[in-house]
Design goal:
- The chain has 319 residues and is an all-alpha fold.
- It has a single domain, classed as A middle domain of Talin 1 (Up-down Bundle), CATH 1.20.1420.30.
- The protein is built from 12 helices and 4 strands, in the order ααααβαβαααααβαβα.
- The strands form 2 sheets. The protein has a two-stranded antiparallel ribbon with strand order 1-4. A two-stranded antiparallel ribbon has the order 2-3.
- α4 packs parallel to α9 and α4 packs antiparallel against α12.
Length: 319
């Protein structure tokens, strides 16, 4: 029982810690003279993926590859099918042209890159189980660097980043929030990973299943609430771009760094999950093509949400 309580408390600490870290460090960066554009593309963007990043770092240190891989793939699937699905049911979601032409294809390419490297032994022994080696992680991080270079030179990305609200806080409070955020992320990530490991053992579930469902949905809760509230308020201009950007960060930064810390063994069943990540991205393009406008409408949102429910049912049957 203590393990389950710590898991829930850990999720809360993880989510709140990320919020405090982003708020505090953004305010510090603002007072140091950094532009809203730079803060939006660095601190705010990385901060939205901080829960997944910390969970994966902790899972890699613990040697729990199933949780690390499941968390990233599960979060990406939930981001598109669940979060965008629910938001689109509430109110139609407009998509910026640049997101359609560049960022969605980039996210699809990132998923295919991870799938290719996980199934191709470029740096190891041919007799070893396929997975992501440290060399693969370095390659993935290299492509993350290319993505950062791309967004830093893109005018529309500058406009989008500048739209991120940057709080103005007294410097002492900003430092306190930053410190509290780091502490919350550390202990929250530790408790979530330890709880997920114990949960998988006590309930007879695989670590991959726990990572793909409970952990992934838990770390995606802030985005779900934020997107739903934004949809109710009809303030959805950058919602899709934020989700796609978060997915790219998860695949390239989070998974790349995790495999550099410790090589991640890859189970064949995870290939299906990667295909679902690709499918979810392709579904966005199909929804736009059918509607003939850069908008995800309610019928598409219902399809997205139903697809996510079907995927969860599949995971339960897979075990």
């Amino acid at each position: 029982m203590i393990t389950y309580i710590l898991f829930v408390v850990g999720l809360a600490a993880l989510i709140k810690g990320a919020d405090w870290l982003v708020t505090g460090s953004s305010a510090i960066a603002k007072q140091m003279g950094l532009s809203d554009f730079v803060i939006g593309l660095t601190i705010v963007s990385v901060g939205t993926s901080a829960p997944e990043l910390i969970v994966n770092v902790m899972a890699s240190i613990e040697g729990s590859a199933g949780i690390a891989i499941g968390n990233v793939l599960g979060s990406n699937i939930a981001n598109v099918l669940l979060i965008l699905g629910v938001a689109a049911i509430i109110y139609s979601l407009p998509i910026r042209r640049n997101t359609v032409l560049s960022e969605i294809p980039f996210s699809l390419a990132a998923a295919l890159l991870v799938g290719f490297l996980a199934n191709t032994d470029l740096f190891g022994n041919e007799n070893e189980i396929a997975g992501l080696s440290r060399g693969d992680g370095i390659i993935i991080l290299f492509f993350f660097g290319l993505f950062l270079l791309y967004v830093f030179t893109l005018p529309s990305a500058q406009e989008e980043a500048a739209e991120q609200p940057i709080a103005v806080l007294p410097i002492k409070r900003a430092w306190l929030l930053t410190g509290a955020g780091i502490v919350g992320l550390f202990f929250g990530g530790k408790w979530v990973v330890e709880g997920a490991i114990e949960m998988s053992k006590s309930l007879g579930m695989s670590e991959e299943f726990v990572g793909l469902t409970i952990v992934a949905i838990g770390t995606s809760l802030p985005e779900l609430v934020t997107s739903a509230v934004a949809a109710f308020r009809k303030n959805t201009d950058i919602a899709v771009g934020n989700v796609v950007g978060s997915n790219i960060f998860n695949l390239l930064l989070v998974l790349g760094l995790s495999s550099v810390i410790r090589p991640l063994k890859f189970h064949a069943s995870s290939n299906i999950d990667i295909l679902v990540v690709v499918f979810s991205g392709a579904l966005v393009i199909v929804a736009l093509a059918v509607g003939r406008k850069l908008v995800i409408k309610r019928p598409a949102g219902i399809l997205f949400t139903a697809s996510y429910v079907a995927y969860i049912v599949y995971l339960v049957m897979r075990g």
